[in-house]
Design a protein that fits this description.
Number of domains: 2
Mean pLDDT: 93
InterPro entries: Glyas_Bleomycin-R_OHBP_Dase, Glyas_Fos-R_dOase_dom, Lactoylglutathione_lyase, MMCE/EMCE_epimerase, VOC_core
Radius of gyration: 19 Å
Protein name: Glyoxalase
Pfam families: Glyoxalase
GO molecular function: metal ion binding; methylmalonyl-CoA epimerase activity
CATH superfamily of the largest domain: 2,3-Dihydroxybiphenyl 1,2-Dioxygenase, domain 1
Strand content: 25-35%
Keywords: Metal-binding
Number of helices: 4
Helix content: 10-25%
Length: about 170
């Protein structure tokens, strides 16, 4: 018999981690640790399809015949995990910002020095996808921009927390 309440009051779950697929794991570890300052908590490791616990877990996720991949684990300053995956025969997307398709199309990091972080991203082979914009021009200093890492993964930068940015109400 379960001890859980069938109609619990919902509460906000915390974010555990995100998985990012990259074509070059070593370069991605360098980019994310040097540019975003994320901590490497598990260095690059090869996972192989076999009967081990992790091998079986990956078969459950990817299906049979996935072969092997390399993975590293990083952590953000607020303890959110980042799994970097390098799969063999990886393919770049033709369009890396298919926002009209359902599913995840970006993640966001926060840095009060949006401009400085954009400069670092560009210097390390990434791209700025748009001008830096203000959420409440002339009223509040909240800024944002979309960028991409050197591997084509799109992400956003906010100058202030999500709660501060949106607590003022509608646009």
């Amino acid at each position: 018999m379960s001890n859980h309440n069938p109609n619990p009051t919902p509460y906000p779950r915390t974010f555990s981690h995100i998985g990012i697929s990259v074509p070059d794991l070593d370069a991605a570890i360098k980019f994310y640790s040097e540019v975003l300052g994320w901590y490497v908590i598990m260095t690059a490791t090869r996972i192989t399809e076999d009967d081990s616990h992790i091998g079986q877990m990956c078969t459950d996720v990817f299906g049979k015949n996935w072969g092997s991949f390399r993975i590293a684990h990083l952590s953000t300053g607020d303890r959110v995990g980042v799994e970097l995956f390098e799969f063999p025969n990886n393919e770049p997307r033709d369009n890396n910002l298919e926002y009209w398709k359902t599913g995840t199309f970006h993640f966001c990091v926060q840095d009060p020095d949006v401009e400085g972080l954009v400069e670092k991203i560009i210097a390390q082979g990434g791209k700025q996808r748009m001008p830096i914009r203000h959420y409440y021009p002339g009223e509040k200093p909240y800024r944002m921009v979309y960028v991409e890492d050197p591997f084509g993964n799109v992400f956003e930068i906010y100058s202030h927390s999500y709660e501060l940015t949106y607590s003022a109400g509608a646009y």
